[in-house]
Amino acid sequence: MNEKEKEREEIEKWIEGDESAAEMLSRVSSVRPFVFPPPLHRVPLRVGNVLELVGPSPSAKTHILIHAAITSVLPKPYGGLDHLVLFLDLDCRFDITRFSRSLIHRITRHGTDSYDRTLYDLCMARFLYVRCYDSFEFLHTLRTLHCRLEKEKEVHGVGVHLLMIDSIGAFHWMDRASMFLSQRENNKKKLFLQTVSEAVVQNIRKLLQVHPMLIMATKSVIFGNIYSKASNDVKGNMEERCSKNVTRNHQNFQYREYMPSVWQVEVFYE
């Protein structure tokens, strides 16, 4: 029986549902190969998902990304996933020394006090880093990622299965300021937040169609007390107006979602 006949037989078995539990678990594991350290181990992640890590600064969002990236680039005998990682640094504050030390610590956990330099170089080469300074560089990076991912796959023999964005709202306030400034100058093209966000979402969706990946994006929030700036009467009106966009915890703290709705709806629910 040649390869085509075997493949056809496997497809027919899958259509008829004729597979054992062991075969089913093996198939599901190949589709969802992401098993990250805590706290991400509680989330059923798979290719095509977009995970948003939200919290104030500092709340260990980048730290979680670092350990997830290390898990991805490490070989399977070391508890890794043997994949490439693409890290888009929009905050421009990523500390590569911190990543290097964490990687060495993970490697030495499986061996002696001296780490394997060859393994270290392999893992560092699998960590692809791109820094963006504004929304235009971010959009240009997303539009040209297809060619880069293809080249990296040819060089390393494995593809990028994890895309990290730290942080997705880094340029929001700059774009918001640019929008108001551009309204005063008719000779310049206006920069609208909705347009930028739509372009980002469209490019991410196109990228996922060609390169199935898991996307992890961090987002900072600013918390405030709902009782600190308004009286009881004004507070009631504010709660009524913001009830759809505000999330509060048990300590009466709130934060407003500042990212445009296209990011929340199109990325997570399309």
UniProtKB/TrEMBL annotation:
Q: Which residues form the RecA family profile domain?
A: 25-270
Q: Which GO terms describe its cellular component?
A: Rad51B-Rad51C-Rad51D-XRCC2 complex; replication fork
**SUPFAM superfamilies documented for this protein:** P-loop containing nucleoside triphosphate hydrolases (SSF52540)
Which superkingdom does the taxonomy of this entry point to?
Eukaryota
Q: Which GO terms describe its molecular function?
A: ATP binding; ATP-dependent DNA damage sensor activity; DNA binding
Gene Ontology terms: biological process = double-strand break repair via homologous recombination
- Name the InterPro entries on file: P-loop_NTPase (IPR027417), RecA_ATP-bd (IPR020588), XRCC2 (IPR030547)
Q: Which PANTHER family match?
A: DNA REPAIR PROTEIN XRCC2
Protein name (record): RecA family profile 1 domain-containing protein
Species in which this protein is naturally found: Sphenostylis stenocarpa
